[in-house]
């Protein structure tokens, strides 16, 4: 599709922010020697926007700063200034429910693998409305996942745009009629989903998710859901679980900013529990939404 055709199809007035400028989404672009394009030398965040407010803004910005620090970059402005620009993008897009996507690349430079401190970071923000009813319909039905080998690098805790293994895994999932792929490490233990954290519930009603390490992304939704669960007295355990344990679990679910707590009803074609979204997942979704709404800036 041509750029012009894409611009025509975009919702009227959709606006992107690129390096200090607000542009029509269909007209926004970056230089061919941007290091994000050339080397995936960039990090990103995705914020859920509800009622025009950024959900879990502070922990997402904390993680952004951690990712930047891990690759030797810094925010090119104060956090407060960044917050104002993000709000402006939400406002200019008249976004009530949807996603705000933020990407920060190391900037434009003649192609050379080595990064230098002289490079000037490039900030991109885009906004996308979502049909929240479609998400709720999916939540009510539950989703299927398939498992696949975890072929990623050793720093999955950095939220980099180097997502080729995740892209291949999600594509495989879709081809196999599933919504998400769960990565399984060499020991047969589930790490996480291609764009979600993975959870199961055991026969005693304990919600289990892998503990934080450099093998998984420290999901913000995972963290807020854990905090909400602890406060409500839901039993939780942070530890690795195997693919076989997942097959035999009473419940399974995913967490992410884009889907909240999403029940899993099938793994590799096998029904989980009674094959319906389970009570722990449903309760955790309510607890998560309540806590993240309470944390949202007024
Ligand atoms: N794991 C991976 C690999 C992801 O890409 C994401 C989504 N960014 C998550 C987990 C979930 O993280 P969050 O709850 O912060 O969206």
Describe the protein's architecture and organization:
The structure is a single chain. The chain is α+β, with helices and mostly antiparallel strands. It is built from 9 helices and 15 strands. The protein has helices at residues 3-9, 35-39, 57-70, 79-92, 132-141, 164-175, 220-232, 243-247, 279-295; strands spanning 15-18, 21-24, 42-50, 53-54, 98-105, 122-129, 143-149, 180-184, 190-193, 197-201, 207-209, 236-238, 251-256, 260-267, 270-271. Helix 7 (220-232) packs across helix 9. The N and C termini lie far apart (40 Å). 4'-deoxy-4'-aminopyridoxal-5'-phosphate (PMP) binds at residues 46, 192, 195-197, 217, 219-222, 255-257. 4'-deoxy-4'-aminopyridoxal-5'-phosphate is lined by residues 46, 192, 195-197, 217, 219-222, 255-257.
């Amino acid at each position: 599709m041509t750029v012009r055709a894409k611009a025509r199809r975009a919702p009227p007035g959709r606006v992107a922010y690129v390096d200090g400028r607000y542009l029509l989404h269909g007209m926004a672009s970056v230089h061919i020697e941007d290091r994000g394009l050339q080397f995936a030398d960039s990090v990103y965040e995705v914020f859920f926007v509800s009622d025009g407010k950024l959900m879990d803004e502070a922990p997402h910005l904390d993680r952004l700063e951690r990712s930047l620090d891990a690759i030797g970059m810094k925010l090119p402005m104060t956090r407060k200034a960044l917050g104002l620009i993000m709000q402006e993008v939400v406002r200019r897009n008249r976004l009530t429910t949807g996603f705000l996507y933020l990407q920060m690349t190391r900037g434009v430079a003649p192609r050379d693998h080595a990064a230098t401190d002289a490079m000037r970071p490039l900030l991109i923000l885009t906004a996308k409305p979502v049909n929240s009813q479609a998400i709720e319909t999916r939540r009510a039905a539950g989703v299927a996942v398939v498992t696949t080998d975890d072929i990623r690098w050793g720093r999955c805790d950095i939220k980099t745009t180097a997502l080729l293994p995740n892209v291949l895994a999600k594509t495989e999932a879709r081809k196999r009629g599933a919504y998400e792929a769960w990565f399984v490490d060499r020991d047969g233990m589930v790490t996480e989903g291609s764009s979600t954290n993975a959870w199961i519930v055991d026969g005693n009603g304990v919600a289990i998710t892998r503990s934080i390490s450099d093998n998984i992304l420290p999901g913000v939704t995972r963290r807020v859901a854990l905090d909400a669960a602890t406060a409500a007295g839901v039993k939780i355990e942070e530890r690795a679980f195997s693919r076989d344990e997942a097959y035999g679990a009473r419940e399974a679910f995913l967490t992410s900013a884009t889907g909240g707590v999403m029940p899993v009803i099938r793994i590799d074609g096998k029904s989980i529990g009674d094959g319906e979204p389970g009570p722990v997942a449903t309760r955790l979704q309510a607890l998560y939404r309540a806590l993240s709404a309470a944390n949202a800036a007024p």
